[in-house]
Amino acid sequence: MAGKLTTGNIIGIEKLHIVGGAEDRTAITNGNVAKNKPLVVCFGELLIDFVLTVGGVSLAEAPAFKKAPGGAPANVAVGVGDDEFGYMFADILKQNNVDNSGMRFDRTARTVLAFVTLKADGEREFMFFHHPSADMRLHESELNTNLIKQANIFHYGSISLIEEPCKSVHLAAMNIAKKSGSMLSYDPNLRLPLWPSPEAARKGIMSIWDQSDIIKVWITFLTGGDDPYDDNVVMKKLFHPNLKLLVVTEGSEGCRYYTKAFKGRVPGIKDKPVDTTGAGDAFVSGLLNSLASDSKLFQVMFLAAFLLEVSLKVLVFSGVCGKSAVKGLVL
């Protein structure tokens, strides 16, 4: 879990499953922060990561696993847990000053479990269990529309676009946020085993691309075989007229950024990778934290007048957050 936003209101909208006698309640977690701070509302999936205790072995060879709360939107906002581990996650929320009183518990479906293997270079492979999963069973009638209308930033991923009814709920929530003047932040999270095919994943991820104001993406998958390091390719395939900021992350090499006015690159902070889990989520956490904590920066983003000097500081900070994402760290 990475990315506690300490200076803005943080809300997570998710559907949970708890084994026990808990009553169904609205799926909201509210950051316990001053009301005059910009509000960040996060929409997306929650899951349990079972991570190997040793690296460089297959799932079959794993001697043991360690459980960890996961889900990219949840990581951005120090989100809630789900499933049988819900009460444990409720305690984690409380420890991080997040109001857990609005968690929703779904008794009819289990939540996604992800077993994670770590390669020698620190990169991961996943195996998912989610047939069906509680996070995919959120219905539009369960949305807190008033909350979404208050959001300054509405952040989401792409996993919630895979199956109905969650896909329609995702689109409805985006539409509400957009009409209410929220800035839309998109961090597509590619997990091919969850999609019917690589082409379906590409199509699904790109289906909402032109509606987002801020996009953070790992470049290789989305350029369709073209050179992902060619700025002309990036601008042609990934930039759209209403986009205020496109950030292309390159792992330890840093990131590139694109706006209507300028583009550039911020080098990475060299270190030996141990486990990259949560690094991209922590990067986004740093980015949204900067926007939510600096009202002037937030305003210039809305005006599409993102200043070069300020943007470099923000992206360097985001890179530090990504590098610092280790087990147990709360940024």
UniProtKB/TrEMBL annotation:
Keywords: ATP-binding, Carbohydrate metabolism, Kinase, Nucleotide-binding, Transferase. PROSITE patterns: PFKB_KINASES_2. Pathway: Glycan biosynthesis; starch biosynthesis. CDD domains: bac_FRK. It catalyses: D-fructose + ATP = D-fructose 6-phosphate + ADP + H(+). Belongs to the carbohydrate kinase PfkB family. PANTHER family: FRUCTOKINASE-7-RELATED, HEXOKINASE FAMILY MEMBER. May play an important role in maintaining the flux of carbon towards starch formation. This is fructokinase. It comes from Gossypium mustelinum (Cotton).
